[in-house]
TrEMBL record:
<keyword id="KW-1003">Cell membrane</keyword>
<keyword id="KW-1133">Transmembrane helix</keyword>
<protein>
    <submittedName>
        <fullName>LysE family translocator</fullName>
    </submittedName>
</protein>
<feature type="transmembrane region" description="Helical">
    <location>
        <begin position="117"/>
        <end position="146"/>
    </location>
</feature>
<keyword id="KW-0472">Membrane</keyword>
<feature type="transmembrane region" description="Helical">
    <location>
        <begin position="24"/>
        <end position="44"/>
    </location>
</feature>
<feature type="transmembrane region" description="Helical">
    <location>
        <begin position="158"/>
        <end position="178"/>
    </location>
</feature>
<dbReference type="GO" id="GO:0005886">
    <property type="term" value="C:plasma membrane"/>
</dbReference>
<dbReference type="Pfam" id="PF01810">
    <property type="entry name" value="LysE"/>
</dbReference>
<dbReference type="GO" id="GO:0015171">
    <property type="term" value="F:amino acid transmembrane transporter activity"/>
</dbReference>
<keyword id="KW-0812">Transmembrane</keyword>
<feature type="transmembrane region" description="Helical">
    <location>
        <begin position="51"/>
        <end position="70"/>
    </location>
</feature>
<dbReference type="InterPro" id="IPR001123">
    <property type="entry name" value="LeuE-type"/>
</dbReference>
Length: 179
């Protein structure tokens, strides 16, 4: 998995969940392009830039968690709009400090030395995106099978509360960790 992928919470259709997965993959593509272009190394070398990305990511996680906690449970027959699922996935990964660290520090060390650096990094980025799409897409399709259970109001409320608390806790943890 890529990190703190956003869930569409309990009101998400399988289509919206797959769009969120597409946004997550786009976030990986963004980090991959920055890495191949060498801009990710600049971000990694700048404590101020790293802090800004970290705090923006933490704030976004807290925002998603608060939204999950305070959102009224939707009617069982209606699936309300949850905003733009693709954008949610993109922002989640673009501001995810773990993805920043992965692409700036770890991924370059995995590049095969016999290939030109840009090609090697591009192949690794594409592999990571393919694995993420496969894993998260399979996860979405599996959860779609459990939809009748997940549509029960008590289950939805419990999942919304759990999701909210976990996202807020992750946001606080991200904000409070040392660089």
């Amino acid at each position: 998995m890529s990190g703190s992928e956003p869930c569409c919470q309990d009101s998400c259709s399988p289509g919206d969940a797959l769009r969120t997965v597409g946004g997550v993959a786009t976030g990986l593509l963004l980090w991959g392009a920055l890495t191949v272009a060498g801009l990710a190394a600049v971000l990694a070398a700048s404590p101020a830039a790293h802090l800004i990305v970290k705090l923006l990511g933490a704030a976004y996680l807290v925002f998603l968690g608060a939204q999950a906690l305070w959102q009224s449970p939707p009617a069982e027959t209606a699936v309300p709009a949850v905003g733009n699922p693709w954008r949610t996935g993109l922002i989640s990964n673009a501001l995810n400090p773990k993805i920043a660290v992965f692409y700036t520090a770890l991924l370059p060390t995995l590049a095969p030395p016999h290939l030109p650096a840009a090609w090697a990094m591009t192949l690794l980025v594409l592999l990571h995106i393919t694995l993420t799409l496969t894993w998260l897409g399979s996860y979405v399709l599996l959860l779609a099978k459990a939809e009748p259970l997940l549509r029960r109001p008590t289950v939805r409320r419990a999942l919304g509360r759990i999701t909210g608390v976990v996202l807020i806790a992750f946001g606080v943890a991200v904000a409070s960790t040392a660089p």
